[in-house]
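Page 42, continued from yesterday. The earlier attempt failed because a stray header line got pasted into the input along with the sequence. Redoing it now with the clean sequence only.
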Amino acid sequence: MKKINVLLTKYSDWISQLVYYIGGFGYTHASISLEEDESTYYSFNYKGFAVESVEAHQHRGVKRSICYQLMVSDDAYASIRSEIDRFLLNKDSYSYTRLGLLFCILKIPFYWEKHYFCSQFVAELLTDAKAVPLKKQPCLYLPNHFRAEMENMPQLVRVMSNIV
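This time it went through. Structure tokens are written below.
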């Protein structure tokens, strides 16, 4: 068994404010880290695939955060690691999608190859690796949607508030 972290944060830019109000007044950004480097997070932002750090979140104006630490099988962990490595190798091939986010807000499943928004990326990694049983399609997850599901998962080891 290995640990992963799903970090939810609240930013204050205009897209984040929209997600905040529509997504349930909670968190506006989702990212994931792996056991071997818990200070490095992977996600998508308006620039595309992003490698983030706690320090970068602090500089970007995070208002609050919550981190869910989960235990996953070695196979699920290896799958997530492999996918992240693929994204790292092909970083320039991927883009952020505001259109996908809009469809998510409207609760309409929409996939656009090599285009992601942050919570879709995290949900897709978790789903494809069979790491945790999520209830919806990855393209229908806003950051705040993880809260209710994560807190009831048997894989949950620890919840840490305001690590950023």
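Notes: The chain has one domain: 2-161.
Reminder to self: strip header lines before submitting.
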